[in-house]
Amino acid sequence: MHPILKLTLQRLGLGVLLLFAASALIFGLTEILPGDAAQAILGQAATPESLANLREEMGLNRPALTRYVEWLGGILTGDLGNALTNKLPIADQIAKRMSATLFLAFWAAIISVPLAILLGLVAVRYQNRWPDKLISGITLASISLPEFMIAYILVFFFAVQLFWAPSFASISPGMSLLEQLHAISLPVAVLTLVVLAHMMRMTRAAILNVMQSAYIETAELKGLTTFTVIYRHAFPNAIAPIVNVVMINLAYLVVGVVVVEVVFAYPGMGQYLVDAVVKRDVPVVLACGVIFAAVYIILNIVADVVSILANPRLRHPK
Amino acid sequence: MTEPLLKVRGLKIGATVYPPGEKPHDIEIVHGVDFDVDPGKVLGLIGESGAGKSTIGLASMAYGRGGVTLTGGTVEVNGRDVRKAALRDIRRLRGAEVTYVSQSAAASFNPAKQIMEQVIEAAVGQGKFSKADAQKRAVELFKKLGLPDPETIGNRYPHQVSGGQLQRCMTALALCPEPDLVVFDEPTTALDVTTQIDVLKAIKDAIRDTGVAALYITHDLAVVAQVSDHIMVLRHGEMVEYGTTDQIINAPLEEYTQALVSVRSIRHEEKQPTEPVLRVENITARYKGTHFDVLHNVSVDVSPGQTLAVVGESGSGKSTLARVITGLLPPRDGTITFAGRTLTPDQPARSREDLRELQMIYQMADTAMNPRQTVGTIIGRPLEFYFGLKGAEKQKRIQELLDEIELGTGFQDRYPAELSGGQKQRVCIARALAAKPKLIICDEVTSALDPLVADGILKLLLELQKVEDVAYLFITHDLATVKAIADSIAVMYQGRVQRYGTKSEVLSPPFDDYTDLLLSSVPEMKLGWLEDVIANRKMESAGN
């Protein structure tokens, strides 16, 4: 078998195993949390008898392992169950929410990834000179501020003072793409600022590392300009670490948007998860958790596979 | 009279150094050097490491490695002073008028790009050839340099061709843009001796056929004698002697040049084998996770107080044999008897006595020592570990050992970074000796050293052998070293012992084809040696 195919299959197998482990962990954690859905539904009106009855009705007093296996079976057949609070199928809700989150993440990624890599290349070109220091300074400052802080600062200037963008990012199917983009411009800006520094710093470090190699000297002695040397000879050899950090940040754009979605009241997965946690809607929390874990694992597998593909020794064996 | 292609006058080169614990300051590496290279001529630059050879070579391209700058004098290429030229103009010169061949082609090729793309990059990028023409020219060069499959080898990636082939690809890379001058920086030093002469011949023919001028940098006088018209001997950034190749080789004027020409002055009386201290019998070994043996049925003996030299090119299994003997790689089959005891195959299970009596010295003294320990700590460690020495007693023994390796007082408190290459290797020898071993395995211990320094190390090892009665298993690819110090020789080829016996037996004809190839490949300081050898060879070298 071709080594690349073998390594890729290995990664996929490991990913599946990891996903099972993550599902067990998420299920276990919701089990040890104090309180349950029955308590949440009854609230103040809970008496021991009514609690016991509701638990019996909802099947909450059966052994944890039985419920886990049932739940896992449901996921594998595409049935995420119904929400406890409104009895609606979770899958329908998640489909809607997930597409909204992906929409946001997609545009944040489209802007931040090329920008981060370009800034990284520029920082290497002008290493330790003012452009490098300026880029590093701004990106590090933006990563150091909490994201809700950045969000409120942007809202204050661009929504409250200048009226350029709405402070509530509500989108609906009836809106044109341009209107939708306008609606999400501020959350996209916040997310971009949050993930930029990490990717840019890694690009810079990975390329600088490669710049020490003898083949960079060869390229310089061919009379190439510094920027040509960087993108033609250094960048292809720095892809693996860069892709890794890009994927971690893409994962963050999907699973880490909770704060941003809440600040901008954006109807995505983050909002949904927060609502469910507040209402102790355990099946929804579980479903969101597993989906977040899956996104994370899949993107990391992609990063691994790209790293493998980027290695000429594996791509072209002797 | 023709105008010289490269005219260097009063060249001074400096660098800023950052010694630990001191303020950064500027030092001068090259102190005013003058020379000319005429069109189509080859000038050899020779000297030991630190002489400034490579620095001068790169100066002709106005390039300074790691903060090195040209501080004075003129470097004229085709009549223009590159020291004062703007970066734009220098870039137009690099890769077009002057090109560079480095010591390690393996590191100098971008691993992520096909060979062809890299070979034609300068020629196309400088606008000298169209892409199609450059490719055609590259294929012609591949043919001329004797590369296999010249039509398609350019489509391969650097890791898909051998070291010798890659070095020839690098030469093609340098010749492709039709430069006026090529700087060859130790182009054959990293290659096996049998591969070296093929590459050397290819380079020599290519220089002759293309009429290009060259600066040929090396520390090996015998090599440079084969290719150059003139030779300049450098030491500590200054010219020692300059003359025609014939004059430098046959009638050197300066004492330093004479020492370089007559290096390997060691005389060693061969001893007859006695009851062996180490007996290796029928060893077969393979690395974990592979499906082929790297050693097949290897049997050799080492007599007490004598030296067995194991020679062969890279990949012949020499170092693997050392790993098997030290227990780092348990063999699949065979036994090792040491001082009358059968050794356990794997190292962790061996007794402290076995560990003590079998010591090792490595090629890279740099990486074999903890950079954060002083020489005293490094040598003192085996004294504590094996003999439980402490305090004044230990200090006394450390001093004795330092005296034995001819380093005086005061070295105890130094760190490895403060020692020269030869001094570092001496400290490693002292560390091995501290354990009072019966056998020391020396793995290419002089390969990383300059010839004169290596000579000193070999003399020391022989001296210590007489005093301490220690046996050496001496692994090397350098036959001159073998001739100098061995009592018996094992020639290894593709994991097998090809020829084995006392030194006089092994080095006397009739030879098998491989031993003949190996022996004839050692460069000799004789004009026209290269052509004679190639004409009289019985087999092709393995590195091709």
How does this model look, in words?
- The complex is a heterodimer of chains A (318) and B (544).
- Chain A is globular and about 85 Å long.
- The longest helix of chain A is centred in the middle third of the chain and has 36 residues.
- Helices cover 77% and strands 0% of the residues of chain A.
- Chain A has one domain: MetI-like (MetI-like fold, Orthogonal Bundle), CATH 1.10.3720.
- Chain A has 318 residues and is mainly alpha-helical.
- In chain A, helix 9 crosses helix 11 and helix 10 crosses helix 11.
- Chain B is an alpha/beta fold.
- Chain B folds into two domains: 176 residues, Rossmann fold, CATH 3.40.50.300; 231 residues, 3-Layer(aba) Sandwich (Rossmann fold).
- Chain B has 20 helices and 20 strands.
- In chain B, strands 6-7-8-3-9-10 form a six-stranded mixed β-sheet, with helices on both faces.
- In chain B, a hairpin with a 2-residue loop joins strand 4 and strand 5.
- In chain B, helix 4 packs parallel to helix 6 and helix 15 packs parallel to helix 16.
- The radius of gyration of chain B is 25 Å and the shape is globular.
- The model of chain B has no long low-confidence stretch (mean pLDDT 86).
- The interface between A and B is medium-sized, with 21 and 31 residues.
Shape of chain A: globular
Arithmetic mean pLDDT of chain B: 86
Return residue spans of chain B where pLDDT drops below 50 for at least 5 consecutive residues. none
State which percent range the strand residues of chain B make up. Answer: 15-25%
Question: Residue share in helices of chain B?
Answer: 25-40%
Q: Please count the helical segments of chain A.
A: 15
Mean pLDDT of chain A: 85
CATH superfamily annotation of the largest domain in chain B: P-loop containing nucleotide triphosphate hydrolases
Total of helices of chain B: 20
β-strand number of chain A: 0
Which bin fits the share of residues in helices of chain A?
over 70%
What's the gyration radius of chain A in Å? 24 Å
The CATH architecture of the largest domain in chain B can be given as: 3-Layer(aba) Sandwich
User: Tally of extended strands of chain B?
Assistant: 20
- Main structural class of chain B: alpha/beta
Q: Oligomeric form of this entry?
A: heterodimer
